[in-house]
Amino acid sequence: MQTKFMLFSGKGGVGKTSMASTTAVHYAEKGKKTLIVTTDPAANLSDVFEQEIGHKVTPINGVKSLYAMEIDPDKATEEYKERSLAPMRELFDEDLVKVAEEQLSGPCTEEMAAFDKFIDFMDTDEYEVIIFDTAPTGHTIRLLELPVDWSKHIEESAKGSGQTCMGPVALIQDSKKKYDDAIAILRDRSQTEFVFVMQPEETSLEETQRSSKDLAQIGIHTTKVIINGLIPEEETIVPFFKGKYDRQQKVIDKSKDLFSDLMIQTMELFDSELKGVEMFIKSAEKLFEGSDTNE
């Protein structure tokens, strides 16, 4: 079984978590063992699924094959440091371990730990689908650029001082292969989908186009765009909504021209907040209406 990875990104407030959760419920309802993980420090999966989740894989109530986790950056950093230092504790005295611990206390380690946790899920074959609900676009692109930078940094440091901003090369050399493998998976369109979520507005479209190009520069390609927040056509009897609807339709047409080689899905506004399993089942039916039944 090959795991399918899906990353959701986009500007803040466009509905990434809602669309990632909708997609996760869709696959789980089809019987695929699905995990949704958020890398956003301001994560609210607990709020949208209306149950406590936190820094542990948690079964979602009401959907048999769905699990969720919110990565806590502080806990991820502690776990990463402990994992790096554990082998040293058996071989070296306390003073040497303390020096290594100090070298693993910079912001560089925090970034590495967050990504390390993120790609831990790329090493498992426990789930058929893993969905990453990421932080707003700029943060996500930085997160995905990191392994490319780290891989080079570790390689260059190994030839020179033996020190990196994350500590001695000896402690992290094994991580290089892990990062190289993760980069390969992220760039492989047969394993990874990268989905941008946007609002039907010109500024949102421009941001999506710009971010998609930035990602392409590190070899990661956009595979799908979801345009979220459309006014339903039956509501256009009011002139205010008719004007807004017409402007939204122009943005959709323009998006289809700009992303002519990508799948574009649309999602209408609901008259109630999109949260809770029942609502996600309802939104999944709309989002995947008419799509391939095997998707």
UniProtKB/TrEMBL annotation:
Top-level taxon of origin: Bacteria
InterPro entries xref list: ArsA/GET3_ATPase-like, ATPase_ArsA/GET3, P-loop_NTPase
Pfam families linked to this entry: ArsA_ATPase (PF02374)
Annotated CDD domains: ArsA
Keywords: Hydrolase
GO molecular function, one term: ATP hydrolysis activity
Top enzyme category: hydrolase
Domain ArsA/GET3 Anion-transporting ATPase-like: 3-287
EC number: 3.6.3.16
Family under the similarity heading: Belongs to the arsA ATPase family.
Name of the protein in question: Arsenite-activated ATPase ArsA
